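Hey, quick one: can you model this chain's 3D structure?
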Amino acid sequence: MVAISVTIPVYNAERYLRQAVESALGQTGVAQAILADDGSTDGSLALAHQLAAEDPRVEVVRHPDGANHGVGATRNLTLQAVRFPWVAFLDADNYFEAGAFDFLMAHLRAHPDLDGTFANVRIFTEASFDSSLGRSFDGVSTTMSTTLPPEALFRALVLRSHKAFSMNTLLVRYSALARAGVFSPNLRVGEDSALLLKLTAVGRLAAADLERVVVTQRWHGANLLGGRQVSAAQKYRNRLAAYEQVWDWGQASPEPPQQQLLLWRIVQDKLRLGELEEQPAARVRRAIRAWLRERCPYPEHRQQARAWLTYGAPPPAPPQLSERA
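Sure thing. Here's the predicted structure for all 325 residues.
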């Protein structure tokens, strides 16, 4: 039988944690549910220990100093405790739908060449979140809606030609995670996006069925971004932080992603961020050139990037798949 480790980072999620854990333990193949507390100040840690006492598959881990280190570092804490060959991810305020793992594993058995598969999420918007933004997001699709071959996923995510998929719907081999590396502990937002980019660069992931809901994602006032709107400029800053983390990983990775494509995305987003912040164009370009000198080791890539910065040049087409990685 397939053995699955479910990883659940926990921070002040006492209200939701039992439902999340029970939804994981009720799935076929779950051999381990890892709850990593990130310095919660409510009753989350006590509840986590209670859940562990109720079911031996539940394990509780903490940072050595018991402090809050952020979601990236806490997700890494869960990965350190994984003992089984398949891994699933769940936020402590979400929950799996019944039969989710049966569905995902059926797709993996039918496609044994895959390293992982994913499906769709259902948004459940709590009243506190509705009132803060003046609308409900129930029924709004926030994930990929077009099935793509594994070879096209990385490019699609970098180009943002398709929506991303939710890590909470992903069932993936631990061996693929080992090749992709860890979550970035420095990213407070977008740590999952960065790891998904790395996974699609080194592994073979494909959707099982994007019409099938396997997770309910709860949006509420206590979410990290819940209850407040994020400016366009801040969205670009968050994206750039994730892309740059993947870029740095690619320099040291034995399986680097399509670095020129990623570099194109970084340059374009830095230019756009400069526009949104109303910075002088010359200053933005100087900053990008300085970034290239510091962070881009390939002379031909630096030369191409500088061409993208030519004054008055039309927006460049993204590099093709055949170009050097």
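One thing worth noting: The domain at 4-219 is CATH 3.90.550.10 (Spore Coat Polysaccharide Biosynthesis Protein SpsA; Chain A).
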